[in-house]
Structure formats: C-alpha cells, structure tokens
Amino acid sequence: MRIVLVALNAKYVHTNLAIRYLRASVQGEFPDVDLREFTINESMERIEAELYEAKADVIGFSCYIWNLKETLAVIRRLRPVSPHTRIVVGGPEVSFEGEAFLRENPEIDGVVLGEGEITFLELLRAWESGASLSQVQGLAWRASSREIILNPPRRQLAMAELPNPYNHEEELKGRLAYVETTRGCPFNCQYCLSSTFQGVRYLPPERFRQIMRQTLRYGARTIKLVDRTFNVNKEHALRILDIAREEAAQYPPEAGIRVHCEMAGELLDEEWLLYLQDYPKDLVQFEIGVQSTHPETLAAIHRPQHFERWARYIREMQRLNKAHLHLDLIAGLPKEGWESFRRSFNEVYAVQPDMLQLGFLKVLKGSGLREQRGEYGLVFAPDPPYTILQTDDLSHDELLRLHRLEELLDRYYNSGRFSHSLAGAVGNYPTPFDFYHEFAEFWHGQGWFRQSWSAKALFEKLWDFVAAQKKAWGAELTAALRERLRLDYYLWERPNGVPDYLLPTEGALPPNYGEMKFSLQQHRGWEQIIPEFTGMDRRQWSRATAVEYFQEPQPRWLLFFYNKGRTQTYPVPGEFFNEVY
Question: Which part of the chain is the B12-binding domain (predicted)?
Fold first, then answer.
C-alpha cells in the first residue's frame, strides 16, 4: 500500500510535526510512506498534479485553521481524477464536528479525531485487510454515500509510547524544527482547544535529547517546542533546558541555535531566575501569553492570573539578558472593551518585551467560547480562522482600528529598528496605546496600508508623521525626534546614502564637523577596541564603519561597525579628541 502524507504549511520555513509522527508510527508495517510538504501560497493546481502523479493508495492531509481552505481546494481537484484513492484528514481543525464535516465534504473518506498515531495505523490495517472500520477508535468514516459513522474516542497516548518523528534523514537547514516534550495543559482557557483535554503528559527527557541531536544534525537551528505550557512542571522544564544547553554546546556560538518555549508567567519564580543566571545567552526564547490584564475578562476565559505580580520576574529576566522575551495579548476576548484593552496594552508595553505580539481572538471549533458565543455577543468569520469581528464590548469599527494598530506595532516596535525613535515619540502621548493608535490612523488616512513598504521606507513614514505634528509639538521636539530617528537609521544598516530628511542641520553640528568625522573614523586607537581593525586596510575599514555626531538621546560621537549583518556601536573615547585637536 502506497501512502502519502501531506501538509500545506503557512510558510516554507515551517515543518509539520504531525505527519512526521504518523510516518514513524506506520512505517514498520507500511514502509511505502512518503511526506509531501507545500505552502498555502503555492499553486493548488501544481500541488494537485504532484499528488496525482504520486499514485498513492491513501493520501492523508494535516488540517489547521490556516490551511483548511487550501487543503479542501486540493482535495476537490484531486478526487475526480483519483476516484480510487482513499483520502483521510486529521488535525485540530477537523477533530470536532467530524460527522458534519464529512457530510459537507463528500470527497473525503474518513476523519481521524484527536491524536492519530494509533488510529491511522489501525485504519490502514483495516483498509488493507478489507475489515470493517467500526473497530477503529477515534475515527469518523463514510460507510456509504448516506451513512456516516462516528466511532468511540481513543484513549490518550503516553508520550513514552510515541515514535521519534525525526527518525528519517532530511534537510532542515533554514527551517524550524517543531518538537513537543509535553501534551496537554493545566489551564482551562476557554478560547483554546487544550481546555478540551485533561491532564499533562511528559516526554522522557532523554528522548528529547535524541530528537534535538537529530534535528541539529539535519541542519535545524531553531527548535520550537509546541508544548502549550512548557514550565507546567519545573523539574521537567529545567531538565529539558539542561539537555538543550548540552546539545547546543557541540556547535560553535555562531551557529545561532535557539529553543523557543511557550511559558505561563504565573509559574515563574526565584528558582527560574537563579537557573537562568548561568544559562548561555540567546539560547532560549520565551513566549508568555498574558492575553489580558482585565479581571473580568480573565474570569470569563477561566484564566486566573495577576500580571502585576509576575511581571517583576520578566523584568529580572530582562536584566539578566539571557533570553528573548515575547509577550502576547489577544484582542476581542469577552468583557474587554476599548478602554480595558487600552489598559492591558499599556501594562504589557511598560515591561518592554523584545516582542509584543497582538493577536485577535479565533473562535475555534470545540472551544468553550464557541459554545458561549451568544452570551458574549461574539460575532466571528464563518470560515477558518474564525477571526472575531465584534463582541458586546468591542464594535467592528474598534476591532478594525486595533488591526491597524497591530500592523504598525509589528512593523515598528517588533522589528527592533526604531527603539530610540519610539521611546521619544511615545513619551509625547498620554500612553503608548494612544501613540500607536494615532500613528495607525495617520497611516490609514494616507492610504499607506494598501501598499507594501521596504524597511527603509518605514523610516520616512515615521518622519512624515512626526513632521505633521510639528505645529502641535513645536520645532524643538520635532528636531529631537529626528535626531533619534537618525540614530536608529544608522543602527539599522550601513548608511550609504542618508535621506535628505535625516541630514543634520548646520546649527546642530560641532565645529569642524567634517574634519572631525573623518579623523575620528580613521583613528589608530580603534585597534585597541575593535580587533577586526588590524585586519582591514583603510578602504575596507571605511566601508565597514561610520562615525556620526548625535544630539539625542544625549550629545555624543558614535562609531558604527557593520559586521556580518550586525551593527556594533562604540562611543568615541575622549582621548581620541585630544589627539585630533
């Protein structure tokens, strides 16, 4: 029996963990199994053609909210020309309302409900032997054109029973390797499907070592743990991080290995801070779901937490500077209107995480909020990903404004390119939320959201906004913000040509500016500060560096060293000036 397992990923860099588990689960009995990964942006015609030419007996599709529309389009093209191929789907997007899904999609023969490692194997056995599918637990199937049968659910698997999903040699260079060390979640968040399962199961840590070692050998440099709450069990989590450190130590620092973990902030404590003190810098990245700080909202979604209590641990982690920190908010949750969301945003922004990810509620099939949608007036898109459109507390107009705010938050704050500019601009508003809202509405008024813009153009758009406020803010503040924007521009990349709007004005420059700039850049003292100086001739050094004077955030001369995609900044030492003069 020839089997093809298919995933349409959101991006090329993503990989699908589920089909790798399924391949490892069945290959002992069904060795002719192949994986095919595509992206949702590829031609549906080309995907269908490749699957048709595979001449498979069974094709399985992994379905999620981000790929269901495209997956069904491929299946509908494939079915008429492959009438004898059995088509089965699985994944979180089809695990609920399986009977209705089969009625709506007659091209599909069966739906694997929930965890599929054993269900899929038993389904293949039944199809190969001609046995009835009625004994395959965790399956919805089509007995005839009119009869659909929903079998009893399957028990949850202990993670020690699972096969190694990366037991096949493959090329993972430039891609994310998804790994799980737990299944389940201790919380009961009503927007999340993890609330539909009870308990947490753990992968034996040494099994994780084997998996990480293989993914690194295959070329992966980012290991993304899909555990819903990585730190639910501190002993397990710290052991996993021990292993990650030990395995990453086999590679040079420039390999850039990173492990991404989703954490619960309320489970952080002093022991975590002590552990991270000696951890390698930048090896881990923590994503922490705040979602909201509004008490009524937290009660409605069954997610009790006290952000103001555990935010201090986030600040201490930032002080240690060992891990990248991402904090998440969700707009459109029950009981959270414009003003309460504004407070949530400002409280999280005040922590200054490396990234502040603003998402929008997805009213998922099987979630508690989908069942309670009438109680909270949740109106959402009828098609995946079921994004919230309005609630009793947030109008559609307000959600559209938040979508615009989110886009600029991502382009500016999360890019990390505008730290000095944003610090200056935000300080001129009552709260950070007010700045991003007004900036986003300015973009909207200019029609800029209808176009794509380069990173360089984003500097100009921010300056256009600042310049438009000159009358209200005054010339002095506007000039100060331009200095900050100029500094961010130099930090972004080698300034081969500084735009006119960022050129310094004569009155803002020190005497003998041009001569000083050249002499300070070429000063021999840099060889004591920057080792690479001695290995460069004058032309190479000039191309790799820039020296500039800035008045903001404080008056100073800076040298920028553009080295291997990174910008290193050095204040010009005082003794250099004595020699130059």
Answer: 1-134
What is this structure's pTM? Answer: 0.93
Positive/negative CA dihedral, 444, 450, 455, 459: negative
The residue among 477, 499, 521 that closes a domain is 499
Helices (H), 350-446: 368-371, 373-376, 396-408, 419-426, 432-446
Neighbours of 447 (CB within 10 A): 8
- Within 10 angstroms of residue 499's Cβ, the number of other Cβ atoms is 13
Same domain, 246 and 187: yes
3-state secondary structure string, 299-332? HHCCCCCCHHHHHHHHHHHHHHCCEEEEEEEEEC
Domain range enclosing 406:
395-499
Asked if 279 and 192 sit in the same domain, the reply is yes
Say if residue 304 is preceded by a cis peptide, omega within 30 of 0.
Answer: no
As a whole-number percent, the residues of the chain with pLDDT over 70 amount to 99
Regarding whether 88 and 21 lie in a shared domain, the answer is: yes
**Whether residue 371 sits in one domain with residue 315:** yes
Which single residue is written with the structure tokens 């937290």?
298
* 290-306 per-position pLDDT tens digit: 999 999 999 999 998 89
